[in-house]
Amino acid sequence: MAAEEDITPATAFAWVGGEGAVRALVDRFYDLMDLEPGFAALRAVHPASLESARDKLFWFLCGWLGGPDHYIERFGHPRLRARHLPFKIGITERDQWMACMMQAMAECELDPTLQQRLTESFLGTADWMRNV
Ligand code: HEM
């Protein structure tokens, strides 16, 4: 019988399903942001085109989840909080970001245990982005 550690993926990146699955998650996240009226405040702080944000969040998340460091290779240290300072991010924007990501993870059918763990980690980072 396989011990639990034998079947648990080595990284969250592998657990999500690798690059294709991370890209699908990011695409769903920005599609929902664009479509759902409940995420309008979050959408409003973003530029008209989400194409650059899609690529950057995809590259960033690959590394953040323990996979390839695509973002750092292109841009150096993420300095995430500093890069978010031009945008007004309060509790509403943080909560909409979280709700949008949680819906994207659910629709992409990530393992429920993984969804729970990522939700906790995302919440720490999203709350740290607040600047108003
Ligand atoms: C808390 C609510 C958040 C809001 C309102 C927000 C908003 C934004 C906006 C407006 C941009 C710029 C997009 C563009 O220039 O096209 C951005 C970029 C970015 N965001 Fe967020 N964000 C939030 C949370 C997060 C979190 C939790 C993460 C990571 C887990 C993240 C990762 C990134 C990355 C990697 C970029 C690209 C940075 C760059 O290289 O310019 N954001 N975000």
Strand content: under 5%
Largest sheet: none
Specify Rg, calculated over alpha carbons.
15 Å
Q: Terminal Cα separation, in Å?
A: 52 Å
Q: Structural class, please?
A: mainly alpha
Number of helices: 9
Mean pLDDT: 95
Helix content: 55-70%
Strand/helix succession: HHHHHHHHH
Uncertain runs: none
Bound molecules: protoporphyrin IX containing FE
Task: Characterise the protein shown here.
This protein is an all-alpha fold. 68% of the residues lie in helices and 0% in strands. The chain is built from 9 helices and no strands. The chain has helices at 4-7, 12-16, 19-35, 40-44, 51-64, 70-75, 80-84, 91-107, 112-128. Helix 3 (19-35) crosses helix 8 (91-107) and helix 8 runs antiparallel to helix 9 (112-128). The radius of gyration is 15 Å and the shape is globular. The chain starts with a helix and ends with a helix. The model has no long low-confidence stretch (mean pLDDT 95). The site of protoporphyrin IX containing FE has 22 residues, from helix 5, helix 7, helix 8 and helix 9.
Write a short abstract of this structure:
This protein has 9 helices and no strands.
Features:
single chain; binds protoporphyrin IX containing FE; about 130 residues; mainly alpha
List the helices and strands and how they pair.
Layout: H1 4-7, H2 12-16, H3 19-35, H4 40-44, H5 51-64, H6 70-75, H7 80-84, H8 91-107, H9 112-128
Bound molecules: protoporphyrin IX containing FE.
Residues 42, 45-47, 52-53, 56-57, 60, 75, 80, 83-84, 87, 89, 93-94, 97, 122, 125-126, 129 line the site of protoporphyrin IX containing FE.
